[in-house]
Write a structure and sequence with these properties.
The chain is an alpha/beta fold. The protein is built from 13 helices and eight strands. An eight-stranded parallel beta barrel has the order 1-2-3-4-5-6-7-8, surrounded by seven helices. The chain binds dihydroflavine-adenine dinucleotide.
């Protein structure tokens, strides 16, 4: 029930406007959101890098309805890529197509995203296109394929284990050498497109994760990210790659900023690639609500810390 409440709240514009302006809201979100400026994000990135952990920087924003807003977000990404190159950060970037104007026109989102990927390719970095609700899945995959054809190896996307279609999509992207981030999926989806029961989602995740690290074409694999905080799944992955002798350099674990820091550090210490998704920006509210929906116990934890000062 709490999960549904937080998902509902994540889309509520009135609550969002109040929360994003309030000092208390910003303090609560700080656990999961690394500040509101590029400078704060870069400083947080350095702290994460110091633990031997890579970063993907995400300027928060989604469902943009005005072209100027999409272009302003793109400017932030250009600045981030400049900072990554100039300061030698161990980082790349993640963005959402609805933030790049996808709801206005696909051509606009593709033009803007293309410029960002072009810049990433020029500085030897990488752009991950996050996956949103299932209404965007096909368009996101198709755009990633077109951008990969223009800038091979500089762009990848995300697949969600809760969707029935994902097994086929894994094969589709691997065959083209497109890097995949595998996650469980964070949006509200109906039983006509997604597994309604969590154990089925978890089973599908494990099956697809194993397929991704086993894939090879002409003797070459595709570097993929396993995005989960589920320790049981992480352990299954470690067991699987150990048994099969899969090189640790062929994949990485990915986790969110502020979530399971103990596990992130342990895996990095053991020599596995770990990347933290580091979101920042003023439009933090929907992202923050989705994190509470995943684990409502976090709301209590944050509230306790707040009142302790
Ligand atoms: P799951 O929810 O199954 O929980 C398993 C265990 O993990 C819990 O028991 C708890 O121990 C721990 N855990 C999980 N969430 C926690 C939290 N918030 N706080 C503390 N502990 C927690 N989704 C999407 O639809 N599109 C996308 O592009 C992305 N991108 C993305 C990038 C990265 C790097 C990550 C880690 C996740 C995403 N996601 C995403 C979100 C993803 O789909 C999913 O909603 C969350 O990762 C939660 O699923 P888990 O597999 O982590 O754990």
């Amino acid at each position: 029930m709490l999960r549904s409440l937080f998902i509902w709240l994540s889309g509520n514009k009135a609550v969002r406007a109040c929360a994003e302006r309030s000092r208390m809201g910003q303090r609560l979100a700080a656990r999961f959101v690394a500040g509101t400026t590029v400078e704060q994000a870069v400083a947080a990135c350095r702290r994460v890098n110091a633990d031997g952990i890579a970063v993907t920087l995400d300027w928060l924003g989604e469902s943009v309805a005005v072209e100027a807003e999409a272009r302003a977000s793109a400017q932030v990404y250009q600045r981030l890529l400049d900072a990554i190159a100039a300061q030698g950060l161990n980082a790349n970037v993640s963005l959402k197509l609805s933030q790049m104007g996808m709801d206005i026109a696909t051509s606009l989102a593709e033009a803007i995203t293309g410029e960002i990927v072009e810049r990433a390719a020029a500085v030897g970095s990488f752009v991950r296109i996050d996956m949103e609700g299932s209404a965007y899945t096909e368009a996101t995959l198709a755009m990633t394929e077109r951008l990969q054809a223009r800038f091979p190896g500089s762009v990848g996307t995300v697949l969600q284990a809760y969707l029935y279609r994902t097994e086929a999509d894994v094969e589709r992207l691997l065959a083209q050498g497109i890097r995949i981030r595998l996650c469980k999926g964070a949006y509200r989806e109906g039983p006509e497109v997604a597994f309604p029961a969590k154990p089925d989602v978890d089973r599908n995740y494990v099956k697809l994760m194993k397929r991704m690290v086993s894939f090879a074409k002409d003797g070459k694999g595709v570097f993929c990210g396993m995005a989960t905080h589920d320790e049981a799944i992480v352990e299954q992955m470690l067991g699987f790659v150990g048994e099969r002798g899969v090189a640790g350099s062929g994949f990485e674990f990915q986790m969110l900023y502020g979530v399971r820091r103990d596990l992130q550090r342990r895996l990095a210490r053991e020599g596995f690639g770990v990347r933290v998704y580091l979101p920042f920006g003023t439009a933090w509210y929907p992202y923050f609500m989705r994190r509470l929906a995943e684990r409502p116990a976090n709301a209590l934890f944050l509230a306790r810390n707040l009142f302790r000062g």
